[in-house]
């Protein structure tokens, strides 16, 4: 057997000490141990360079093509409701979008493990196939069950295979700038959430392109973007024998990780309701179909700013756990304010505000999960397990919100708005408990 190289020994030492360093790297009381461990990690987590930022760019593009398409889902929710499937109830139609969101999360445990074992290219390529195939089949669909299978489950499988590897792999390249890097990747979701609604609005409402060809054009664009993204994204750590299997027991026996997981569950239960219903809500408040389409883009524009802002604040002062607590309570407060948005101007202002705080929240949860992973090589699996558990929250969020709207005869969004705000408030309390368990230092 060949002797272990100096670099391999260095990597192994850092992996063994990863959890200790990750939890305490902002604790001022760590002293000399902190400085020594940080120095060791400088060579393992480059926090920059061509390969690191190339991987971040690949994740950014992957999120434009996949999750960004999902972020503009309220456009299709409105189009289904008014044009394609007018006889279907709001709660039935909400299942299509909820299944897509659920798929992004549910398949995380398998896509994260695939990424850890074989690298991110395999799950990204498989995800591209199913996402594009689902859109192509949806372009041929005419009945509700056909849209649910193609636009719902097939696209969901593709997005689920893309989401976790594109996001979690960044934590193998970044440590001190992890919040910024993940925020940059997540901002791809917001860019896509601007591009796809504007493109769909232009094709459907101005150019007279059919719904089927609109989906085909989107599918071909996704294929091109994902081809480039798959080439750019690379892993830094290869899986070792002892971590070849899924670390389920280790995950479920870690108290801090479970608290964080429950917090993310309640966060996802309420967070995405406005993303699904912003367009039909705006149209119900008097917006034209064109302006309703653009409200989804406005929401994503605000989220784009939030991703970067909180990442910078977390990396250069506040700390990621403090940041997730502040962002969650702020998001809950803005969700309560949704009740007061009654006209076009109010909806637009509210969409910008909610976009900023919800975008910030979406960008910061993955660095928190990665921070609690025992070693860098299982970051993908750690994120995957958490995201898969959270999938059941996002699966329920659309139908619950749709049922709440349906119970009022489709005339009042108040129960839905209250549900969103309370879910986020509960998540904030759980994140606060997690933060106190991780560290009692002021900045963590």
Key phrases:
444 residues; mainly alpha; Growth Hormone, Chain: A; 0% strand
Tell me briefly what this model is:
The chain is mainly alpha-helical and 444 residues long.
Distance between the termini: 42 Å
Nearest-integer average pLDDT: 83
Level-2 CATH architecture: Up-down Bundle
Helix content: over 70%
The CATH first-level class comes to Mainly Alpha
Q: What's the number of structural domains?
A: 1
Structural class: mainly alpha
The string of secondary-structure elements, in order, is HHHHHHHHHHHHHHHHHHHH
- DSSP E strands, number: 0
| Overall form | globular
Description:
Residues 51-435 form the Major facilitator superfamily (MFS) profile domain. This is Monocarboxylate transporter. Pfam families: MFS_1. The chain crosses the membrane at residues 60-81, 93-114, 121-138, 144-168, 180-199, 211-233, 258-279, 291-313, 320-341, 347-369, 381-402, 414-438. There is one protein chain. 78% of the residues lie in helices and 0% in strands. With 444 residues, it is mainly alpha-helical. It has one domain: Growth Hormone, Chain: A. Helix 4 (50-65) packs antiparallel against helix 10 and helix 6 (73-84) runs antiparallel to helix 7 (90-106). Residues 14-42 have low confidence and may be disordered.
